Amino acid sequence: MKIDVFATVASHHGTGLATIDGGPESTVNYKAAQRAEQVFLWGSPILPNRDHILRIRVAGDGVVTADRFDVSVSDKPEVTTAAIKEVTVTFTNLVVKLEDAATSIVDPTTVKLFLDGTVRTASVARTPPITTITHTPATPFEPGSTHVLKVEALDTAGGGITNATTFSLPAPFFPLTGLGGPASTAGNWGFRQIWNAGRADALVSAVSIALQANQTGFSGNLQDVPAPVINFGKTANPGGGGLIPNDQPLPAEPQGLTTNDFVLVARARVKIPRSGDWTIGVHSDEGFGLRFIGAPFDSVNGAGQRDDNFPEFMVEQNNSADSNSRGILKNIAAGTYEIEFISWERVGAAYYEVYAAEGAFMNDADTDQWQLIGAPGGLEIVAAPPRLTILGLSKSSDQVTLNFNSSAAGGQYQLQESADLARWQPVTPASFQNTGNNSFRFTVSGVTGTARFYRVLLLGAAP
Question: What CATH class does 189-382 carry?
Answer without folding.
Answer: mainly beta
